[in-house]
Specification:
- The complex is a heterodimer.
- By secondary structure, chain A is mostly helical.
- Chain A has four helices and no strands.
- Chain A has helices at about 1-15, 20-40, 45-70, 75-105.
- Chain B is mainly alpha-helical.
- Chain B has a domain at about 270-483.
- Chain B has helices spanning about 10-25, 30-45, 50-55, 70-95, 100-120, 125-140, 150-180, 185-195, 200-215, 225-230, 235-255, 265-290, 295-315, 320-345, 360-365, 365-380, 385-400, 405-435, 445-465, 465-480, and strands at about 60, 65.
- The two termini of chain B are about 25 Å apart.
- Classes of the chains: A mainly alpha, B mainly alpha.
- The interface of A and B includes residues 69, 74 and 102 of A.
Amino acid sequence: MIEFIYNCFNNCWNFFLDVGLVHYLILSALIFCIGIYGVITRRNAITVLMSLELMFNAVNINFIAFGRQLGTPVGQVFALFIIAVAAAEAAVGLAIIINIYRNFRGVDVDKVDLLKW
Amino acid sequence: MLEKFIPISFELSVSVLAFLLLLLDIFGVRSKRVFAAVGIIGLILTLPLTNHMWGMHATLFGGAYVLDGMAVFFKVLFIFITLLIFLFSLDFLEKKFEFRGEYYSMLLFVCLGLMLAVSSADLLTLFISIELISLPLYLLAAFEKKNKASSEAGLKYFLLGAFASAIFLYGISMVYGTVGSTKFVDIITAAGKMNLYASPVMLLGIIGLLTGLGFKISASPFHMWSPDVFEGAPTPVAAFISVAPKAAGIAIIIRLFLLSMAAPQVQPVWVLILLLLSAMSMTIGNLTAIPQKDFKRMLAYSGIAQIGYVLLALAAATTLGIASAMFYMILYAFTNLGAFGVLMLVTRMNGSSSISEFAGLSKRAPALALMLLLSLLSLAGIPPLAGFVGKFYLFLAAFQHGGLLFKIMVLYAILNSVVSLYYYLGVLKVAYFDPPADEGTVRVPTSSGLALFLCGMTIVVLGILPPLSTWVVNITQSMGLSL
C-alpha cells in the first residue's frame, strides 16, 4: 500500500519534473481557454482586449514548443511575427475603444447595442 | 535585375501609392479631390502591368509567395474593386465626416493585403496579409468618429475579428506542429497521406483555419458580425467589406483546401464540411434577409446566402467548380457594388439606409432605379443578367459532380434562390410603385455615375457574352490545379 502511494507520488512528481512538449501544449490550451472565457463573459472592452492578448500568447507558447520539438526555426519566427501583429492589433483596438468611450461615455460592451437584428 | 521584381510589381506599386497619399497628407494637401484623383490615376496606371504577368508562374521569397493565373486574376479584380470604391468615396466623403487623408491610403493598404493574400503560399504570409486586410478595415468601419453606429460597428468588427484571428492562429500552430512546415505544398502533401480521423491535432488545426477563413467570407456559423458592421460602417466601406475580403477568402480556400481534396481519404471530410457550411449559409442568409428593414443589413444577409452558393460549387472541387466560383466572385463584386452605389447616392444627405428611402426612386431618378433593378435582379439570378450565368455554372458544377447528396443540395439551392427573389423584389416594389416621400430629384455626380455605369455594363455584358465565362475556365485549366 505504502509502496503504491509512493509510486503514484513518484509518477506525479516525474510528470512535473520531465517537462516536455505535452506540458507546453496543455499550458497553452489552458491559457487559450481562459482567453476565450474572458472574451465571452467580460463586459469591459479593455478586459476583452486583455483576454484576446492571452489567446495570442497561448498560440506563441504553442509555436515555440513545436519549434523546439521539430528543431526548425519557423516556430520562433512565427512567434516573433505574432508578437508584432498583436501589438499593432492592440493599438488599433485601443483607438477604437477610446472612440467608443467618447461616444457612449463608457467601455461596457453590453451598453453598445444600437445595431441589432 | 529589375526583372526579378515583375511578379510583385502590383504590390510594390500599390504600396508606393499608399505611402504617397500619406505623404501628401503630411505636406498639407487638404483637397479631398486631389487624394482621390492621385489614387485613381495611380491604380489605373498599375493595370498595364497585367501584360507582363499574364501566364507567368513564379515562386518568390523561398516559396512564401506564388504568382500564377489565379493570383493575377484576383489581383486585377481587387484593383477594379478599389477603383470603384475610390470613385464612390469621392462624392460620399464630400458631405460626410471631416476629412482625413488616411482614408484613401488605408483603402490602398487593404488592397495590398488582399493582393498578398491571394498569392501567399505559406501560412506566415497568409496570416500577415490577412491582418493587413483586417486592421485598416477595423479602423475604416469606425471612421465616422462622431457617429455612434459607426464606432459600434468598428468595435464589433474588431473584437470578433481579433477573436477569429486568434482561433485561426491556434489552428496554424496545430497544423505546423503536425506537418512540421507552414508551406502550403508541404501541408497539402502531408494531408494527402494522413488519416484525418486518426490525427485529432491536425483536424483541430484545420477546423481553426476554416473558422478564420469562414469569418472572412462570412459563411454561416461565423457570420454574426457582418450585418452589424455593414449597417454601422460608412457605406463605401461597407461596400468594400462586402466584396473584397470575401473574394480573397474564396481564393485562399481554393489554394489551401481544394488542392488537397484530391486525396481520396481526405475528400469526404471536406465535402461534408463545405456542404454543411453552404447549406447553413443559404438557409440563414435567405430566411433572415426577408424581414429586414435596413437595405445594408439585407445586403449583408444576401451576401451570406451568395457565399453559400459559391461554397456549394467549391465542394464539387472540379475545374468547372473552381472556375465558376472565380467567375461568380467577379460578378458578385460588380453587382453588390452597384447596389451599394445606388444606396450611397440616394441617402447621401441624411445617412439613413432604410429600404423606405428608395420610395418612388423611379420618378426621382430613373437611371438609379434602373441600376438598382439590374443589380438586384442579377443577385437574384434572373436570366439575361450576369447573376444567372454565374449561378447556372455554380449549380452545373455541383450537379455534374454526381452523388445524390450534391443533386439534393443543388435542388435546395435553387429553392433558396426562389426565396431570395422575394426580398429583392420587395425592394424593387418600394422603388417602383411606392409614392415618393421626397419629391426632389437625386443628383448623380460624375464620378459615382461613371462607377455605376461600369457596374451596370459589367452586369449586362457578363450575362450576354458567355465566352467570358469559358475564358475563366481556361484560366483555371492553365493553373493545372497545382500550386
